[in-house]
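Notebook B, p. 112. Complex prediction, attempt 2.
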Amino acid sequence: MEDGGGERERLTLVARKPCFGLPTACPKSLPVYIYLRFSKIPFSLEFNLIHPDSDQIPFVESGDYVAYNNEKGGVIPNLKEDGIVDLDSEVSGIPEWVSIKAMVESWLADAIMYELWVGCDGKSAQKIYYSDLPWPIGKILYFKQVLVVKQLLGITSDNADRREEEIYSRAALAYGALSSRLGEQSFFFDNRPTSLDAAFLGHVLFVLHALPETSVLRSKLLSHSNLVSYAENLKMEYVDANLSSSSVPQSDPSSSASKRVPSHWSSKPRSKAKREKTEEEKKFRRRAKYFLATQLLLF
Amino acid sequence: MDAQPESGPQSKEPESPNPDPEPYEEIEEDEEPEKDEDLEHEEGEEPKTMTPEARTRKDRANMEALFRRLSTERVPVRVHDVIIKGNTKTKDSLIESEVEAVFRDATSFQQLLRAASLANTRLQDLDIFDSVNITLDAGPPELPGTANVVIEVTEAKNPLTGDLGIYSKPEARSWSLEGSLKLKNLFGYGDLWDGSVAYGWGQTSEVSTGFSIPRFKGISTPLSARISLLSQDWLKFSSYKEQALGLSLGLLSTGNHDLSYNLSWRTLTDPSQMSSHTVRRQLGHSLLSALKYGFKIDQRDSPMRPTRGHAFVSTTQIGGLFPDLRSLRFIRQELDLRYAIPLGFYRAALNFGISGGVIFPWGNGSLNAPSYLPERFFMGGNSSPVCSLRGPTSVLGFKARGLGPAEPRRLVRENSNDGSSSDSGIDHIGGDLAVTAFADLSFDLPLRVFRDAGIHGHIFACTGSLNKLTENAYKGFSLQKFRDSFRSSQDLESLYPPSYSVWSNKIIYYKEDSRCGNML
């Protein structure tokens, strides 16, 4: 079968299901997707909806070649080592780059894991991982995963509060450091995307879109507006563009700004902008009240 | 005085009826059919002056007259009452329901004896009694021509039995250790509870527990339920491991029909991380909720070494009915046909057989969807198709799962300096449409020592074809392609040339044993 063979030779990313307006809603799969979009290599996206507890997913395949998530440190190091795509050749020697990447992949990854499975009510996790599995299987696997995560993070009934505080404070420290490192730049290093940008962008997009509004982690992230705008800009340029075909990204950034945003994403940014506006409006109103009060007193 | 033969578990002899309350000698019997006393045969009192020898001669003469009368005349009698003795735990209703229909239809003495034998067998088959005695007694004097049936059972003293064994599986070339514990008649309804463990080195392991009940209150067919945890290792053949936690319920099991329901949680994993594309796409969890209906006719004289008769089996499985719509949806149909013709010398017989099977998913988008990998048909193995009636699975001469579509496994580059890649091997991924056929000549070997040991010879030829229909493959499917897909044993060496007209000749030796034809 020629067509089948041809399709299989193409680079394919197999990830977890898309939802919350993201091309893939799993915090491990999203950085790999973004990395491939940064590299501008054409690839197709497929989903595995029935194996939420597999550490082999996400994986990248092309014909007989497969790069699994649980080998050699992840899919991205695999792709680098096998010579498929390497965006870090010039930065991987910089100590600061390495330590920032390590911070993102440890502290921030732990924070997401905690927030998704323990911190919030679990609705996001159920939707991403278990909504396509029959009910009894989904429920059992969910509870099993919650136990696994608690074990991984070292959370017991005695130290639960302490660990939560520790995880959130580390995340807050990381956000602060990243925010001051980034400033107003488009990327962290060299004004070009690296796997650090892929990892952090994946993290930010997940926290902003997939976690509920009541999430503590989300509110900590929202306090750094430059990180939020960094994420939104890159999302518009690399992720939103050509979402339907998801094969060849638009290389011209100016055209993507005028591109119509796909309808199923439109609600999220609007609501977020509305929220920000509401906070500013509140501030303005408060100031206006003080001003009016002062004027009245004067009169 | 009653003359009651002891009936052991294998006895199929009719029981002797109780003679009239006249002094008769006790008659000791072993395995011979008994037709000695007539219920209505009133015997007069013997004069006390007769010598013992004369008395014996007279008795013998009376018995012979009775035999003649029984064999030539039809003596009408009907059953008035069934009296059950000896059951402390077992419910009367269970025993009555097993034997009631049999005795109700008996209208003559011969029929009554046959019915008694049948009832004895049925009660023995319940497997909860150590012994069963059925005695025929005269009915109440005011009702002539009636008999009472007295059933005396001895319940098993020890309700717990167990067994342990090591079995070989020739088609998988492995061994398995199996042990089971059975608890009989816990609640007095003839219920059998059992737990079993089977451990196969590197292949299949299973832990299961179940119960079966021959009849319960209003339901007259046997019911059974089983919970099992099964683990199968197919890494060597198809790069996946399967775990299944399942509940199966036997709903109907009468005569030729069998209906059961199976609910199981199946997980496919690949710890080797070497699987091919098709297998990678199927790894994960699934819920199987399927109704299975089987229809079987087996008129062959022996299931192990048939020399005459025919057999037909049809198995239909429909998955995805309930409870959850996201469970696996498929329809699977298997057919088996066997025919044996005796040749009249050396116990030789010609056996022909054809088996076919098809699986396809149903529901939205089913035309593009793949069929579930473990439910597909796989062919090959070393089990004989002559004695197995398990669908199109065995084609002798191929290794396990060796026939049919295959895909290359993942390629792992060992060393970038090396430049060459390690041999990845192939995964057998099974097919959706399967057909096997065979022709077999079985015969006794000329040496007596082989005949006595039950070893006989076979010359066979078999062929099989396995094709993919799902994922739009049916569009490119044609009769020519179907013909070209047949492989026979001779084609083991060369995989691809068409094998339409080639048959193989092989002579292999099989020992008759009770575990012929294990499922792959």
